[in-house]
Amino acid sequence: MEVTPLYWILLLFISRVAAGQSPGSLIVRPNRSQFFEYESVTLSCEVLGGSKGRRLERNPTSGKRTRCGDGWGRVDGTNCIISSTKSTDSGEYVCGSGELNNAVNIVVTDGHVILESPALPVTEGFNVTLKCRNKTNPSDLTTDFYKDGSLIRTESTGVMTIPAVSQSDEGLYSCRHPELGRSPESWMTVTGENMN
């Protein structure tokens, strides 16, 4: 069989779909939407076929839209690195002009509890793990998990798995530690299997 450039493009597409990731994506590493202050996060714009060059931009919760390196973050090749997050890094992150029009909301808190949930859309049918993390007593893991403001489950491990997510699982999630309080809310987006 003759191996053509189209073959490799299709192979890349299939591998990304199998991983539950859009072939054109704003990539967040680690893939979560909440961070404590003074943590590190790397963001990049990637598209099918390896096209690069789009600049990451941020719409902060207050202020004007700016590019990575313009008073926040550090450009390193195709990556934007925020090496020590602070509350002013909260906001909507988007790729510049081009095919990519997806956005990711990131929350940075000086509180005691965060919910580690996917920043990127998850594909219907995949399992999703949510983790409640506190910075005061990491060994105390008892956690209440909430969706759209309502209690859905209490876990002694601080971890909740949603098996084979569906559109009905889309919504606002948060968690609460009995002594340290509640995390911010984060929206989890679920995309259909054929929408990637």
Description:
By secondary structure, the protein is mainly β. It has 1 helix and 19 strands. The protein has one helix spanning 5-18, and strands at 25-29, 34-36, 41-46, 56-60, 66-67, 74-76, 79-82, 91-95, 103-109, 113-116, 122-123, 128-134, 143-147, 150-155, 159-162, 171-177, 181-182, 186-188, 190-191. The strands form 5 sheets. The protein has a 5-stranded mixed β-sheet with strand order 2-9-8-4-5, with no helix packed on it. The relative contact order is 0.17.
Identify the notable features of this structure and list them briefly.
5-stranded antiparallel beta sheet, 42% strand, single chain, disordered N terminus, 5-stranded mixed beta sheet, 196 residues, mainly beta
The secondary structure category is mainly beta
Give the overall form. Answer: globular
H/E element string?
Answer: HEEEEEEEEEEEEEEEEEEE
Mean pLDDT: 83
Over all CA atoms, what is the radius of gyration? 18 Å
- The neighbouring-strand order within the major sheet is 2-9-8-4-5
Number of helices: 1
How many strands, which pairing sense, and closed or not: the largest β-sheet? Answer: 5 strands, mixed
Low-confidence stretches: 1-24
Total strand segments:
19
Terminus-to-terminus distance: 27 Å
Helix content: under 10%
Q: In percent, how much strand structure appears in the residues?
A: 35-45%
